[in-house]
Amino acid sequence: MRKFFPLLLVIIVLTSCQNELREKGTPEYISEIKEWHKKRIENLKKENGWLNLVGLLWLNEGENKFGSDQSNNLVFPEGKAEPFMGSFFLKDSTVTIEINKNVKVFLKDGGQIEKMILRHDQQPETTVLSYGSLRWFVIKRGDRYGIRLRDLEADLVKNFSGIETYPVNSDWKFEAKFEKYDPPKKIAVPNILGTIDEEKSPGALVFSKDGKEYKVDALDEGDSYFLIFADETSGIETYGGGRFLYTPKADSTGKLLIDFNRAYNPPCVFTKYATCPLPPKQNHLKMQITAGEKNYGHGH
Fold first, then answer.
1. What is d(CA 99, CA 106) in angstroms, rounded to the nearest whole number?
2. Read out DSSP for the chain?
3. Domains of the chain: which residue ranges?
4. CATH number of 53-153
């Protein structure tokens, strides 16, 4: 009998874990979270989603020739682009594009172009150009400029089967309090490129679970707070680079809710061509948040 005890213990533990991870909440709440996640998947597949990224090409000062030929400074996908399409010119923080003769490149919602100054993604009305199924635009990260390249016919878009999530559980929805920083606190936010950005945090969201208090520094996103966090599932069941969560600001009654069932993967989990922020060290929570999205594939 004694030799069966370890096996029995394992079965009890596994059964207990399975019971803990069952769906919990009103039918309306469970349906609401599932509908939110369904729209999230649909958005990932859209033209401005993250699944169609096929390149992040950094510009050097001066001329940067581009096309599918390997001799170019910026190499576009073979079979999707002309061998020699033209050049990007980076000078004094301004990016200009010149298209070679007999190559037809278009503004995304406009006519054919030959030469123009490009507005980057930190500016209003970012310039988006197209050739066949390719779309591209300039991004600015710190003092670096690059070309973010999309392919609307990318394999990942065609083969994407969704993202596994933890069962919806209302126990992971908390009423929180906002601890204001006056003045806003400067926090160091590392990113996937290996650099650190300094951001201003207006305050922290504070919540309690099982009698223990937790705090997450937030970023201000207008009507919402943006949280970049990691927990003890990170790198195991969830993405090692943490997860994102938007939470609405307090309503008219002063009530503020934080719902980890809406925690989702950053774009870097799908593609190596994204430039994601990583959790500040103070947002590494010493708890297992078994809610929201799990990791996708092997991450990046």
1. 10
2. -GGGHHHHHHHHHHHHHHHHTS-BS-HHHHHHHHHHHHHHHHHHHSTTSSTTEEEEEEPPSEEEEEESSTTSSEEPPBTTB-S--EEEEEETTEEEEEEPTT--EEETTS-EESEEEEP-TTSSS---EEETTEEEEEEEETTEEEEEEEETT-HHHHH-----BPPPBGGGEEEEEEEEEEEEEEEEEEBTTS-EEEEEEEEEEEEEETTEEEEEEEEEETTEEEEEEB-TTBTTTB-TT-EEEEEEPP-TTS-EEEEGGG-B--GGGT-TT---B---GGGB-SS----SB---TT--
3. 53-153, 164-283
4. 2.60.200.20
Per-residue pLDDT tens over the stretch 190-248:
999 899 999 999 999 999 999 999 999 999 999 999 999 999 999 999 999 999 999 99
Which residues are paired to 150 by β-bridges? 53, 135
